[in-house]
Amino acid sequence: MLEVRGLDVYYSKAHVLRGVSLEVEEGEFVAVIGSNGAGKTTLFRSISGLKEYHGQVLFAGEELPQDPAATVARGIIHCPEERHLFPFMSVYDNLMLGAYRRHRDKSVQEDLAMVYGLFPFLKERKRQLARTLSGGEQQMLAIGRALMGRPRLLLLDEPTLGLAPIVRRAISQALEKITKNGMTILLAEQNVVFALEHSSRLYLLETGRIVKEGTVKEFCEDEHVRCAYLGG
Fold first, then answer.
1. Whole-angstrom Cα distance, residue 71 to residue 214?
2. What's the Rg (C-alpha) of the chain?
3. Which of 57, 99, 173, 209 has the fewest CB atoms nearer than 10 Å to its CB?
4. pTM (2 decimals)?
């Protein structure tokens, strides 16, 4: 479904991504792991068309233009690390904005019910302003808004960063449910244990380069991964 070929990205003179290539098959849950500053967010911003790059990004066999609106139109929905909610709009309005491209489609209400099923508190607080939610609640709202776009490919950037264990569990349970329905997900995550629990394949990104790719079993058996990311 997704193929990234030889991506090079610069911030001014800083070479942030260096020849990054990866693939995601339809229905897969693939994780990109790495420490803070490794380039994960830059990779996701590039795929979304938010950051200029050299190389190719192909989706369903066609090269994507470097344009966020065109990327969303193809069905790639990006849930960013910073969440980017509309703080002075209600929970309900934030969710409905996720479906703005198909607001007249009857399936929008079906998806809204699905999101409320994943995160029941969103229904309870649907009239509450997004800015009044806790950090964990805002993260769940950001994921819910992304799901309202009915993504063919969901890009999840650091969904558990800084969250309490109870919120991580809620997000974990939600991901288990949507992946059972066949959704394709590319995850960027510093929490390697979380990534290993959910993904089928992983890529390790270090200082802008993919240094390892493989299955969960291969990552768990890798001495460098165990020592550097799993505490030995």
1. 27
2. 17
3. 173
4. 0.94
